[in-house]
Amino acid sequence: MIRTARHGAVQVITLDRPDRRNAVDGPMATALAEAVDNAEHDDDVHVLVLTGAGDTFCAGNDLKAMAAGDFPMPTVDGPPPMRVTRTPPAKPIIAAIEGYCFGGGFELALWADLRVASTTAEFGTLNLTHGLPCLDAGTVRLPRLIGQSRALDILLTARRVSADEALGYGLISRLVDPGQSLEHALHMADAMASLPPGARDAARRSVLEQWSLPEHEATQNEARLALTPQATEPPPRSNHP
C-alpha cells in the first residue's frame, strides 16, 4: 500500500491503493510513517516526493476503516490519523498531486513544503461534510499558507477548490498538465538536492521556525542557522569546466 523508489538523492513515496482512491487506513498510515522515517534517517536521501498511484493523490482517510475502528481513538497527545503530520518533515518534501486531494489527504499535502499539481487536482476538507474534524493540522497550516479569510472560506464551506483557484491562492507552487505532476516534482527535487545541503537546510529551517518568533528573534535565528559550520561549507568542486 506504500511504495518507495529512489531517484538519485530523491526518495519517492507513493500512496498505492487506487481501488480506494488512495484513501488511507490504519496500516497504510503506519507504513507511510515508516517510509518517511527511513528516508529521513538515510544520509543519501536529500529530498522526498510524496505522490499517489493512478490519477488520484489521496481521497482522505478511509471512512470504512474508521467506522470499523481501524484507526486508534484520536487524542490530543497521540498520533494523528496520518501519523506524520504533527511535526514538520526533517527534509524537504514535495507533494505531487493529481485528482482528488481531500480530507486527510489535503492535510497531508499541506504538511509538505511544496505542492505541484496537475489541472485535474481538486482540494478540500470534505471530511467536514461527514462530521469528521480536521486532526492532521489542516486548520493550522492552511491559514498560514493562504491567509485566514481564504482558509475559512475553504474550511467552513467544505467546498471543492479547483487547481486554478489553488494556484491563485498560493496553495500550490506549480500547475502542470494532467499526468505530469510527478515528473515536475522530480525536476524540482533534483534541483533542491543539487544545492549545498548546509545552506539549503539553514534557509528552510529559518522559514519553518520563524512563525512562533517575533521578527527580531526570527532574524537572529536566521543568522544563527546561516552561520553554522555546515551552512557555510562551500559546494563540492565540479569536475566539469
Observed structural traits:
2 domains, disordered C terminus, 241 residues, alpha/beta, 39% helix, 9 strands, 9 helices, 2-enoyl-CoA Hydratase, Chain A, domain 1
Describe the overall structure:
The chain is globular and about 50 Å long. The C terminus is likely disordered. The chain folds into 2 domains: 192 residues, Alpha-Beta Complex (2-enoyl-CoA Hydratase, Chain A, domain 1), CATH 3.90.226.10; 30 residues, no CATH class. A 6-stranded mixed sheet has the order 1-2-3-4-6-9, sandwiched between helices. Strands 5-7-8 form a 3-stranded mixed sheet. The chain is 39% helix and 16% strand. With 241 residues, it is α/β, with parallel strands linked by helices. Belongs to the enoyl-CoA hydratase/isomerase family. This is Enoyl-CoA hydratase-related protein. It holds the Pfam family ECH_1. It comes from Actinomadura fibrosa.
Number of helices: 9
Task: Summarize the biggest pleated sheet.
Answer: 6 strands, mixed
Task: Give the CA-based shape.
Answer: globular
CATH architectural designation of the largest domain: Alpha-Beta Complex
* Mean of residue pLDDT values: 94
List low-pLDDT spans: 237-241
The top-level CATH class of the largest domain is Alpha Beta
The portion of residues assigned to helices is: 25-40%
Total discrete domains: 2
- Report strand %: 15-25%
SSE map:
Elements: E1 2-7, E2 10-15, H1 26-40, E3 47-52, H2 63-67, E4 93-97, E5 100-102, H3 103-111, E6 114-118, E7 122-124, H4 138-146, H5 148-157, E8 161-162, H6 163-169, E9 174-176, H7 181-193, H8 197-209, H9 215-226
Parallel strand pairs: 2-3, 3-4, 4-6, 5-7, 6-9
Antiparallel strand pairs: 1-2, 7-8
Helix pairs in contact: 3-4, 4-5, 8-9
